[in-house]
Specification:
The structure is a single chain. By secondary structure, the protein is of the alpha+beta class. The chain has 2 domains: about 180 residues, 2-Layer Sandwich (Gyrase A, domain 2), CATH 3.30.1360; about 55 residues, no CATH class. About 15% of the residues lie in helices and about 35% in strands. It contains 4 helices and 14 strands. The strands form 3 sheets. A 6-stranded antiparallel β-sheet has the order 10-11-12-9-14-13. Strands 2-3-4-1-5 form a 5-stranded antiparallel β-sheet, covered by helices on one side. Strand 3 and strand 4 form a beta hairpin. The two termini are about 30 Å apart.
Length: about 250
């Protein structure tokens, strides 16, 4: 399980500050957890995270490896906004069993269960890779890497982007990809004959097609160039196939 850090954003401008930066609508905080991303001005992924209202503050749940760089970038954007950004000691407890009191539903997919913030940083032993592969849900640092595009990673299906909220960093490129183009690349669930290292290149008839990522049993998440992803493909000698339509 990816290690997490919980940031605390406080101050009277916190929500308006986040609203102008992140891919999702911060007003949804009043309904529970919000999944969102911070992008470059060119619309490329920098970090994904969960936001949670905590009184007048907002908690930000991010992969530990991204926390320090995220603080630096948020601080850079803060300018004169009245917002304080600190690292908290809170931890996230995750599970798919019946949710304990105070837990919040994971907004990406019902099968991802709940998240609870406090002193307990454990999880209930759920097979997270199996759940993610079943529903093509990307993970920070595996399928989600700097330079990728969130729509190719399925953020719309994961409730991680809002196209009605107005401007945010990278919004113009993201909206253009949504409304004016057909995605030519993206994450898909594929079948595999055997396990191979994460990051193994996929080819078809000697041409590069994409990359194989998280695997569970005979299925995996792959990033594919969709116009070439047809018939039998290959990754380090392992056969890779898209499921038959329907």
């Amino acid at each position: 399980m990816t290690q997490r850090r919980i940031l605390r954003l406080s101050g009277p401008d916190t929500r308006s500050f986040l609203q102008g930066l992140v891919s999702n609508d911060v007003t949804k905080l009043d309904q529970g957890l919000v999944y969102a991303a911070l992008l470059t001005p060119q619309g490329k992924y920098l970090a994904d995270f969960f936001l949670l209202a905590a009184g007048d503050d907002v908690l930000l749940d991010v992969a530990a490896d991204l926390a320090n760089d995220l603080i630096k970038r948020l601080t850079m954007y803060r300018l004169r906004a009245k917002v304080e950004i600190t690292m908290s000691d809170l931890q996230v407890h995750r599970g798919t069993t019946p949710a304990p009191k105070g837990a919040h539903a994971d907004p990406r997919h019902n099968d991802l269960g709940w998240r609870l913030y406090g002193d307990d940083g454990s999880d209930d032993g759920s097979d997270w890779d199996a759940i993610r592969v079943a529903h093509c849900i990307p993970e920070t640092g595996i399928e989600l890497t700097p330079g990728s595009y969130i729509l190719e990673a399925g953020f719309e299906t994961l409730n991680g982007v809002d196209f009605r909220k107005g401007c945010y960093v990278g919004q113009e490129i993201t909206a253009r990809m949504k409304h004016k183009t057909t995605l030519r690349k993206g994450l898909r669930v594929v079948s595999i004959d055997a396990q191979v290292p994460v990051g193994t290149a996929i080819t078809a008839q000697g041409k590069p097609v994409g990359t194989l990522f998280t695997q569970s049993g005979t299925r995996a998440i792959a990033y594919l160039r969709l116009d070439r992803a047809q018939g039998d493909m290959e990754a380090a000698g392992v056969t890779v196939r898209l499921p038959n339509p329907g």
